Amino acid sequence: MPDLVPHSAPPAQADLAALAAAFGERLHSAGVPVTPERASRFAEAVLLASPRTIPEAYWLGRVTLLTGHFQIPVYDRVFDEHFRGYVDLVEQTGPAAPSPASPLSAGERAPRETHAPTQGASHSPITSATPGLDARGDGEAEEMSVLAAASTSERLAGRDFSECSPEELALLRRLVEQLPLVPPQRRGRRLRRHARGDRLDVRATLRTAYRTGGDPVRRSLRRHAERPRRVVLIADVSGSMEPYARVYLHLMRGAVRALGSEAFVFATRLTRLTRQLATGGPDYAYARVADATPDWAGGTRIGTALTRFLDEHGRRGLARGAIVVVVSDGWEIGDPHEVGEAMRRLGRLAHHIIWVNPRSAAAEFQPLAGGMAAALPHVDTFLSGHSVRALEDLLAAIREAGERRRV
Amino acid sequence: MHGDALAGVVPDVASLARSLEDSGYLADPGLATALFCAVRLPQPVLLEGEAGVGKTQAAKALAAALDTPLIRLQCFEGIDAAEALYEWNYARQLLGIRLAEARGEGLEESSLFSRDYLVERPLLQAVEHPGPRPAVLLIDEVDRADEEFEAFLFELLAEASVTIPEIGTLHARHAPIVILTSNRTRDLHDALKRRCLYHWIDYPSLEHATAIVRMRVPEAGDRLVSQIAAAVSRLRTIDVQKPPGIAEAIDWVHAAVLLGVHELDAEAVQRTLGSVLKYREDHDVAVEAGLAWVSGA
Question: Do B54 and B246 touch, CB atoms closer than 8 A?
Answer without folding.
Answer: yes
